[in-house]
Design brief:
The chain folds into two domains: about 180 residues, D-Maltodextrin-Binding Protein, domain 2 (3-Layer(aba) Sandwich), CATH 3.40.190; about 210 residues, Periplasmic binding protein-like II (D-Maltodextrin-Binding Protein, domain 2, 3-Layer(aba) Sandwich). Helix content is about 50%, strand content about 10%. A hairpin with a 2-residue loop joins strand 4 and strand 5. Helix 1 packs antiparallel against helix 3, helix 1 packs antiparallel against helix 5 and helix 10 packs across helix 11. About 50% of the residues are buried. Bound molecules: alpha-D-glucopyranose (GLC). Alpha-D-glucopyranose binds next to helix 10 and strand 11.
Length: about 475
């Protein structure tokens, strides 16, 4: 009885904390921008809060001995539905265990805020956490070593670099779930219509093609049409996009693996200034408030010639109800002065909280979710890239997402953000970087001025 009471109290406390996080979490831009995910973010979080309160009541009604596991997962595109489907399959195979799926805010900073509230309270409310590829170094202390729960037998099936990324002080703190890399989406029908025989090889080509197609489509009556949509809000997604521009222009990767702060260089500044020139010309002014879903919505409505996004947008764009189904393809992102394009490495892992009351069962669930069959399901249904190497040879997977094969090199050569080199301060490093880039995109200053200051700020953050 006492146990149930304190559980309920904890849930109420958590609900309050989530509301506070929704009001105060994340960067300023993220929170105040109306037309973007930030609105969803607050809404999502308050829905979660209600869900959790209701779920808690349900928990109390359960028969003694019933185990309830809670997964904190993503809700971008089809993520939540797919996580629910795997949870259902797990429950069917494991009577006596109930799995509840809690969706979390889209923006990485907001999601991290929700997680940190739970971890700081050492709360048992969350058992399995979907964590970003950039978080192992910052969050390792809150997770169990999955190698002690059976992961050692399967870790070798996954990409070595991701397993390495998720191994902190010899402990495997998360099992890889899906990997991500930035891609260029292009409208193949429009390229043909305007006489282009393939996607742009360079950023200059992209500018030229985007301008021509935008002018042509507007002249034909679609005033809402834009050349290029991408992620320009001041959040982690902008760190990803800007790193791609900079790496493709021989401008390094912000902070190098040996800890050298490299951002203050002319190649980095030149390409970020070039990107600032897209705002209001080939990209809408509002792109500086866009997250992944804002770009996808404009693209999927048929109102953009090009889009930078992650692989998840592929299956959604080809869904039956999509007006662009069959009319687009994906390619590597364009090159700058380096002569080749760069893709930022993204992706998500499953970690088990140290504060879970059922680490054994939670680890079983995480390993089930990350298994061959479940990654196959997500690859086919959601075009989410598997982390299990063998799935890239699976004919069913390649049929559903042919680019997993044709762009394989993009996925294995993706550029990592400096999360290992700057752990446990990566989130602060990234925030300083995206705010600096954002100030260039919105015309407050030029990139070389911004990066002179950023270099000093990063030195302070890293030395702290
Ligand atoms: C995607 C990536 C993730 C990245 C995020 C930025 O979800 O997988 O690694 O941090 O986008 O918005």
């Amino acid at each position: 009885m006492l146990n149930q009471k304190s559980f309920k109290l904890l849930a109420i406390l958590l609900a309050l904390m989530l509301v506070l996080a929704a009001c105060g979490g994340g960067g300023d831009e993220t929170d105040t921008t109306e037309e973007t995910d930030s609105g969803d973010t607050a809404a999502d979080t308050s829905t979660d809060t209600e869900d959790m309160a209701t779920e808690d009541m349900a928990t109390e009604d359960m028969a003694d001995g019933e185990i309830v596991l809670r997964i904190f997962g993503g809700n971008v595109g089809q993520e939540k539905e797919m996580t629910q489907a795997v949870a259902d399959r797990f429950m069917e195979a494991n009577p006596g265990i109930t799995v509840e799926v809690v969706d979390t805010p889209d923006f990485v900073e907001d999601r991290l805020g929700v997680y940190l509230q739970l971890f700081e309270a050492q709360s048992p409310e969350g058992d399995v956490f979907q964590i970003d590829v950039i978080w192992p170094g910052d969050l390792a202390e809150h997770f169990v070593d999955l190698n002690e729960y059976g992961a050692a037998d399967v870790a070798g099936d996954h990409f070595d670099a991701i397993v390495q990324n998720n191994t902190v002080d010899g402990k495997l703190i998360a099992i890889p779930w899906f990997t991500d890399a930035g891609l260029l989406y292009y409208r193949s029908d429009l390229l043909e219509k305007y006489g282009y025989d393939g996607p742009p090889a360079t950023w200059d080509d992209l500018e030229e093609m985007a301008t021509t197609i935008q002018d042509g489509e507007r002249a034909e009556g679609n005033q809402d049409f834009w050349g290029y949509v991408w992620q320009g809000n001041a959040y982690e997604g902008l760190t990803c996009d800007a790193l791609e521009w900079i790496a493709s222009n021989d401008g390094g990767s912000i902070v190098e693996p040996d800890g050298t702060i490299s951002i203050n260089n002319p190649e980095a500044a030149a390409i970020v200034d070039q990107a600032a020139g897209w705002v209001g010309t080939i990209s809408p002014e509002g792109v500086t408030a866009f997250g992944e879903e804002d770009a996808r919505n404009m693209w999927q409505a048929g109102n953009a010639a090009f889009m930078r996004n992650w692989p998840y947008a592929y299956s959604l764009g080809n869904a039956e109800d999509s007006v662009i189904a069959g009319l687009f393809d994906v390619s590597p992102l364009p090159a700058g002065d380096s002569g080749s394009g760069a893709a930022t490495l993204g992706g998500w892992q499953l970690a088990v909280s140290k504060y879970s009351e059922h680490p054994e069962e939670a680890a079983k669930l995480a390993l089930f979710m990350a298994s061959y069959d479940e990654q196959k399901y997500r690859a086919i249904e959601g075009s989410l890239n598997p982390t299990i190497k063998a799935l890239y040879d699976d004919p069913d997977v390649l049929e559903a997402a042919p680019f997993f094969g044709s762009l394989y090199d993009v996925f294995v050569n993706a550029v990592a953000r400096p999360s290992t080199a700057t752990a446990p301060r990566y989130s602060d490093v990234s925030a300083a970087f995206f705010n600096s880039v954002h100030s260039v995109l919105t015309g407050e200053q030029d990139a070389s001025t911004a990066f002179e200051v950023l270099e000093l700020d990063l030195a302070d953050i890293i030395e702290q």
